[in-house]
Design brief:
505 residues; alpha+beta; 28 strands; 24% helix
Length: 505
């Protein structure tokens, strides 16, 4: 409406007031612009641009985020009349956080009408997920749906569906759900987690504490984290607020692409402390593709025991610290054995990719196509060389474990006792087909103790030379000056590792 037309319908004083307000507002804008230094104005504009990026990203991704409710039947004893109401009972009768529960705290539990007997109690869990295919495929965490007897999926628009299929991979804590009959689903775009860098902005979406449609912002704090909660770990770390209920939801970049699946937090209180962890989407895509196709994840293997090249070990093997992965043992008949890998080799690259730690090598090996031939660059005795290995399917079984004892000889300078390794003892220790000497005792505070050696460990090499008897071990160590490091190869039921013994501070 023009000012002229406006005047026909409104009193002149109203029109004049409106015009004055418009003039005043314009003047205020000019005054503010003149009073703010250019740097301040630019900073505000940058902040507004970032806010706009957050808004647009949230709008794009939100329709793909779902709420997942899982129900698990748990056997529980029948309640007894007169039993005091505790927190767990109140949750059962009144629900999580219900104000009515406080009214009954410490009071006798209500008696059911039917005859008391063992009954089935339903445990309910809430998590998040993200739609990865419009056909009804949803990616989430295994721990969100593990052992559930019923899984419900609530879409962003409020529609609810029961999951018709649930396929899981506990080793990575990932799961894929399938819902049927849902139309107009919006699948999220999956990004490339390898390209994400420390310091990049990210948003975490999900249902923390059951609060649907929550978005939090932060940055990537670190990459390739291992925190000891799953068998396969290569987490992205973020300070975007992640709380209980966020599990399985997406971590996205500002392009609206999913670059991780929110999985865990590091917290003493149970809430966000600014340290959250997400499974990289590249790994999640590899796992989910196999779950969707075959229902299981098949991993390739090389057949080696490996350890990180520490600063102390680097000089002994002619490589830089934290560069490459040290081979501690080679499984007989494995792809590594057939390729000619040896204990003491340092793997520098695998399939053209540099490796810096055991977890990184494990991830790249496991994702190789079974039967494919892969080039491996190694350092052996100070010289680089390249070999080829054909990856095979990883077996499920691992090594057994149990410790025992042996007649021992004390090695004073090392602070430990060792005994000959018999076939029977090796079998009990879970280290069959191995020659060496077994540690039977370690003196507290000794050189061996400080190096982390323990009774039951088997020493198979001294200074890269095999040892198979106590007499040989004594001869190889008696004249060694421990101010100069001594390199041992030690085997347990968990595998082999190199250990350095050194006296002094």
């Amino acid at each position: 409406m023009s000012i002229t037309k406006f005047r026909k319908h409104k009193a002149p004083w109203i029109t004049g007031f409106a015009i004055a307000a418009m003039i005043g507002s314009t003047a205020a804008v000019h005054l503010q612009a003149e009073s703010n230094p250019p740097r301040v104005t630019a900073a505000v504009a940058n902040a507004n641009s970032l806010s706009e990026a957050f808004r647009q990203t949230a709008r794009v991704v939100a329709p793909s985020v779902v709420t997942i409710t899982s129900e698990t039947e748990v056997a529980s004893p029948a309640p007894r009349q007169g039993q005091p109401m505790n927190d767990e009972m109140m949750k059962r009768f009144f629900g999580e956080g219900s104000p009515f529960g406080e009214m009954f705290r410490g009071q006798p539990q209500m008696q059911p009408f039917h005859k008391p007997s063992a009954e089935s109690n339903t445990r309910t869990g809430i998590g998040s997920g993200v739609i990865i295919d419009a056909s009804g495929l949803i990616l989430t965490n295994n721990h969100v749906v593990a052992d559930a007897t019923n899984v419900m999926v609530k879409l962003a628009d409020g529609r609810e569906f029961q999951a018709s299929e649930v396929k899981t991979d506990p080793k990575t804590d990932l799961a894929v759900l399938k819902i049927d009959g849902a139309s107009d689903l919006v699948a999220a775009r999956l990004g490339n987690s390898d390209r994400i860098e420390i310091g990049d902005w990210v948003l975490a979406l999900g249902q923390p504490f059951g609060l649907e449609g929550t978005v939090t912002a932060g940055i990537i704090s670190a990459k390739s984290r291992g925190i000891g909660i799953t068998a396969r770990e290569n987490f992205l770390q973020t300070d975007a607020a992640i709380n209980p209920g966020n599990s399985g939801g997406p971590l996205v970049n500002l392009a609206g692409e999913v670059i991780g699946i929110n999985t865990a937090i590091s917290s003493r209180s149970g809430g966000n402390n600014g340290v959250g962890f997400a499974i990289p989407i590249d790994e999640a895509k590899w796992v989910s593709d196999q779950l969707i196709k075959d229902g299981v994840v098949r991993r390739a293997m090389l057949g080696v025991g490996i350890q990180k090249v520490s600063h102390e070990l680097a000089s002994s093997f002619g490589v830089e610290s934290n560069h490459g992965v040290l081979v501690t043992e080679v499984v007989k008949g494995s792809p590594a054995d057939k390729a000619g890998l040896k204990s003491g080799d340092v793997i520098l690259t695998f399939s053209g990719r540099e490796v810096h730690d055991p977890r990184g090598l494990q991830n790249v090996v496991e994702q190789c196509a079974v039967g494919s031939k892969q080039k491996i660059e190694i350092m052996r005795d100070g010289s680089k060389m390249t070999i080829e290995a054909v990856c095979e399917v990883q077996p499920e079984a691992g090594l057994a474990n149990k410790a025992s004892e042996s007649a021992a000889s004390k090695i004073e300078s090392l602070g430990m006792e060792v005994g000959n390794l018999t076939e029977d003892l090796a079998r009990k220790l879970g280290v069959k087909d191995v020659a060496g000497v077994v540690i039977t005792n370690v003196e507290p505070g000794s050189v061996a103790d400080r190096a982390g050696l323990k009774a039951g460990n088997v020493i198979t090499q001294v200074e890269r030379k095999s040892v198979d008897s106590v007499d040989q071990f004594q001869a190889m160590t008696k004249d060694h000056d421990l101010s100069d490091a001594m390199l041992l190869l030690v085997k347990t039921d968990q595998g082999s590792r190199y250990v350095i013994l050194k006296s002094g501070k």
